[in-house]
Structure formats: structure tokens, C-alpha cells
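Q: Predict the bound structure with zinc ion.
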Amino acid sequence: MIRKNSLFCKLLRVKKTSARLFQECMERFSCSEERCPYCQAKEACVPHGYYERNIIDFIKGKTFYSKVCVLRVCCKACGHTHAVLPDVVVPYATYSLFFILRVLAEYFAHVMTIEALCSRFAITSSMLYRWKGIFLLHKEHWLGAIEVPDLFSFLFIRNLCSLNDYSTEFSSPFIALTNCSFLQQHETRRK
Ligand SMILES: [Zn+2]
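A: Predicted complex:
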């Protein structure tokens, strides 16, 4: 997997859909400039194909479905293929980064009951708790193992959304620290 930075801004200020941000990032993408994440070969990646995936946002109080085409590249040196994913999407998750952060922020702020929250976002409680679990784990990786009240988790999310440049200040350094994307639930296979 090749992760690309796409959020050089405050998440709070973003007015575009995740699909639009995804597309804009891919318009800037140049295969020839990439280094293979598996064998580190330079200028060896070539387009290999596309696959379609859904992205779900939450816009004006409603779930909003979009589709994007994910580019897969192949390394001519080692033969491995890699999906190219801008950091506006969470690997293996259909729900966008914005969607999951919004759900978690409202969960930790205790603005409504769990039932009302799940109904508002049209999600199951098991999804909510799965996101909460991975969020707490990743927060711990980032900040160290500290027991904190829910209010702190809410403030942590609010701070993430207020960073001047989410990609450079958090998204990239998080991957460098943990070898995993923020909120990603499956381990990255080294392919
Ligand atoms: Zn390679």
C-alpha cells in the first residue's frame, strides 16, 4: 500500500467530499516518482489497474455515498502490487476518516444516547465500539499509555481536526511511528 498525503489543511475547514479530495490527490499523483514500499526500488512502479470502492461521508446530517477508483501499481523490480490510497480514506474501511472522527467526537462528548447516535449515523453499536477500540489503541500509541476520561478523547479529536496541516502534523508521523494508518483495523501486509 502506498499512502499519499491529501489533507494539508485543518480538517474542520474541509468543505469537499472525501471522494473529491481523493480524486484531487490522485490527479497530482505521479507513478514514476514513487519508491516501491516493498523493495524500495525507485522509478519502478507502473500502473497496474483500478478497482472501485465506496466511501461514506456524513454531510448535512445525512450519510452520503460516493465511489472512487483506486489505482493499483506494480513494481517492475520485485513484482509486488500496491494500492495507492490518499489519507482521506482509512484502509479497509468504507466509512471515511471524517465520518469516523465525527461519530467518535459525538460519542465522547456524550451528546446523546448510544441508540440515538447509532440511529443518527445509521451504524450499528458494534461498529461504534469497534471504532472506539481502535481509536483508543491508536491514541495510546501516539500519546503513550495513559488512562483518560472521555472528555480528553473528545479534546484529542478536536485537536486533530484543528491542526493546521493534518497530513504533515499527524497522518504521516503516525504511520512512521506505528507502521499503520490512523484508525486502520487490519495490519498492513508488507506487500
Ligand atoms: Zn518493488
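A: The helical segments are 18-28, 97-108, 114-121, 125-143, 150-162, 166-178.
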